[in-house]
Amino acid sequence: MIYAQGDQKTANMILKDSLVSRFNRRDFDGIYDLGTTPWKKKSKREAIKEWLNYIYGLTGPVLESKEYKQLAGASYYKWTGTRKTMSFSLKDSGGLFSDFNFTFLQEPVPAAEMKKMPTDNPLKSSLDSAVNVITTSFMVYNRLVGVSIGIVKDGKTYLYDYGTTEKGKQRLPGSHEVYELASITKAFTGILVAQAVIDKKFRLQDDCRKWLDGVFPNLAYHDQPIRIVHLANHTSGLLHELPDLSAYTSSFDVLKMYDSYTDQKFFDDLRKGTTHTVPGTTYQYSNVGFKLLGIILERVYKMSYAKLVEKYITRPFGMKDTRPSLAISDTTSYMKGYDENGLVMPHNNFNMFGGSGALLSTSADMVSFIRHNISEKDPAIALSHQQTFGTSAQGIGLGWNINYGKYGKMVWKDGGALGFRSYCIVVPALRTGIVWLANKSGLGDELGMMIDELLDAVLKFSQ
Question: CA–CA separation, 32 vs 339, rounded Å?
């Protein structure tokens, strides 16, 4: 359909409204069909549908689409979704689109709205101001509930809290407010694995089946066994989760199942799985691998995972509030968590995640954890930071992700549970680290982008 020059704006609005309507009813095929022939030639239908489904998972249905700028032949719209707001750029071509894209909206929050956000930030230094702008904007656009931040720089600690511990209440989180760490637990497990190597309990190259009862022929591929190091750097080839959760319709049903999910049931499910790659050759994120590591650690030390964390990490580091989660019946010992839609989620339990994601902590405790990881004086921490897989740009240590960028070597781990989101990063050479904890799940790549922005602000700050 061809429009006259004077009708171009109307044509663009019609196309935009059609895209919003199809996006909201998840008609991703319909969106693809509105592309020009040259665009379709370079864009695969299934890849576009998968990408749009991912974006829909971030935003939810779009409540409002408002144009806020035009640049380089594209119109930019602020897409306000039920879950979060994003920027949508659109290039119109005669009633069809020649290109479109989504980016995380970096629009500054008005000063009046920033002042409404509860916080204990003293706003006395340039760091305070930078943290306030970055955090408040991120919370507003992602509809977060509560956030606690801990920063360590050159031996000094800075703690900030925002929002509320619970919707409908005005109770600011504190530095001793307990959050689920989720997969940051893997960094703790990685340190324990390193400790076991130092204690000569096992070697990183040992076959993981050495400490399992019965026969597990499936924990090998082409006669190459899954070794301890493969579990610790996500190259085992094991599945992401066990058991298969596709039959469960709600998170509550999943956790109810996990309340009675014993190690024996885990091993029964583990025997049914298969690996399709030679261990140690392909990165494939696996909660299963880290849960298995936690069990192996318990067996080689003849001590529970909770006691191992206490003996080697929390007690010597002075982390008094850090512990494994208990069960979904534990609804009062720490703050409520919310999903992407703002619904209260059940709490985590140890049977589900174990050494993969079952720890709870606070920003006050985690700054102590950061300090020890910055110094790398603890031999187990130093070993856990050594790269075991990857490239010269990025890799994996023992539980930790490793990136090499403008600040040199950065060691980090993030986490996401049903109702929580977390991030921990240390730059040992620059004596800097950050922990970020929130009681709402979701958030995609924009969390990492925000942490990068926060890290930039911290490193620019001088007392």
Answer: 29
Whose CA is closest to 421, among 401, 451, 442, 446? 442
Rounded to whole angstroms, the Cα distance separating 359 from 180 reads: 6
Residue where one domain finishes, among candidates 104, 120, 136: 104
Pick from 40, 118, 23, 39: which is nearest to 79 by CA?
23
Please write the tens of the pLDDT for every residue from 431-460: 999 999 999 998 878 899 899 999 999 999
CATH number of domain containing 41: 3.10.450
Residues 275 and 379 in one domain: yes
Q: Mind listing the pLDDT tens digit for each residue in 89-139? A: 999 888 899 999 998 776 677 888 888 999 999 999 999 999 999 999 999
Q: Strand (E) positions, 118-205? A: 146-153, 156-163, 179-180
Phi, psi of 451 (to 5 degrees): -65, -40
Note the pTM of the prediction, 2 decimals. Answer: 0.85
Question: Quick one: average pLDDT of 395-423?
Answer: 95
Judgement on whether residues 233 and 347 belong to the same structural domain of the protein: yes
Question: Residue 17 belongs to what domain range?
Answer: 5-104
Distance between start and end Cα atoms, the chain: 62
The CATH number of whichever domain residue 441 belongs to comes to 3.40.710.10
- Are 396 and 384 in contact, with CB atoms under 8 Å apart? no
Residue 5 confidence (pLDDT): 42
CB atoms within 10 A of CB 401: 19
